[in-house]
Amino acid sequence: MTVILIGALLIVAGVVYMADAVLRRGRLSDPAPSPAKPGPTLEPRRRGLGFLGLTQNWPGLLMVAIGVVLLLSVVVL
Questions:
Q1: What is the pLDDT confidence band of residue 25, given thresholds at 50, 70 and 90?
Q2: Based on the number of CB atoms within 10 Å of its own CB, is 7 exposed (0-12), middle (13-18) or buried (19 or more)?
Q3: 42 in a structural domain
Protein backbone atom coordinates (compact mmCIF):
# COMPACT_ATOMS: atom_id res chain seq x y z
CA MET A 1 0.00 0.00 0.00
CA THR A 2 2.83 2.37 0.84
CA VAL A 3 4.49 1.75 -2.52
CA ILE A 4 1.27 2.71 -4.31
CA LEU A 5 0.98 5.96 -2.36
CA ILE A 6 4.61 6.88 -2.97
CA GLY A 7 4.25 6.12 -6.69
CA ALA A 8 1.08 8.20 -6.98
CA LEU A 9 2.65 11.09 -5.06
CA LEU A 10 5.72 11.01 -7.30
CA ILE A 11 3.57 11.17 -10.43
CA VAL A 12 1.53 14.10 -9.10
CA ALA A 13 4.66 15.89 -7.87
CA GLY A 14 6.34 15.43 -11.27
CA VAL A 15 3.39 16.88 -13.16
CA VAL A 16 3.13 19.82 -10.74
CA TYR A 17 6.88 20.44 -11.04
CA MET A 18 6.71 20.52 -14.85
CA ALA A 19 3.71 22.88 -14.80
CA ASP A 20 5.47 25.15 -12.32
CA ALA A 21 8.63 25.11 -14.44
CA VAL A 22 6.68 26.41 -17.43
CA LEU A 23 5.05 29.17 -15.39
CA ARG A 24 8.38 30.22 -13.82
CA ARG A 25 9.95 30.90 -17.23
CA GLY A 26 8.10 34.15 -17.68
CA ARG A 27 4.82 35.69 -18.55
CA LEU A 28 2.62 33.75 -20.91
CA SER A 29 1.01 36.87 -22.32
CA ASP A 30 2.30 40.18 -23.57
CA PRO A 31 -0.01 43.11 -22.81
CA ALA A 32 1.90 45.47 -25.14
CA PRO A 33 0.37 45.57 -28.63
CA SER A 34 2.61 44.23 -31.36
CA PRO A 35 2.85 46.00 -34.74
CA ALA A 36 1.35 43.03 -36.60
CA LYS A 37 -1.65 42.53 -34.32
CA PRO A 38 -3.73 45.35 -32.89
CA GLY A 39 -4.65 45.18 -29.22
CA PRO A 40 -3.38 42.93 -26.46
CA THR A 41 -2.93 39.26 -27.26
CA LEU A 42 -2.33 36.12 -25.23
CA GLU A 43 0.15 34.84 -27.79
CA PRO A 44 3.71 35.70 -26.78
CA ARG A 45 6.21 36.71 -29.42
CA ARG A 46 8.91 34.18 -30.30
CA ARG A 47 8.14 31.85 -27.40
CA GLY A 48 8.42 28.64 -29.44
CA LEU A 49 8.27 25.17 -27.96
CA GLY A 50 11.36 25.55 -25.79
CA PHE A 51 9.33 24.96 -22.64
CA LEU A 52 8.83 21.33 -23.69
CA GLY A 53 12.56 20.56 -23.74
CA LEU A 54 14.16 17.80 -21.70
CA THR A 55 16.78 20.09 -20.18
CA GLN A 56 14.19 22.06 -18.22
CA ASN A 57 11.80 19.20 -17.41
CA TRP A 58 14.09 16.28 -16.57
CA PRO A 59 13.46 16.36 -12.78
CA GLY A 60 9.70 16.22 -13.32
CA LEU A 61 10.00 13.51 -15.95
CA LEU A 62 12.25 11.51 -13.62
CA MET A 63 9.71 11.76 -10.79
CA VAL A 64 6.91 10.61 -13.10
CA ALA A 65 9.02 7.72 -14.43
CA ILE A 66 9.94 6.51 -10.93
CA GLY A 67 6.29 6.76 -9.89
CA VAL A 68 5.19 4.69 -12.89
CA VAL A 69 7.84 2.06 -12.15
CA LEU A 70 6.68 1.86 -8.53
CA LEU A 71 3.03 1.47 -9.58
CA LEU A 72 3.90 -1.16 -12.17
CA SER A 73 6.06 -3.08 -9.69
CA VAL A 74 3.01 -3.52 -7.47
CA VAL A 75 0.98 -4.88 -10.39
CA VAL A 76 3.69 -7.36 -11.44
CA LEU A 77 4.36 -8.63 -7.92
A1: confident
A2: buried
A3: no
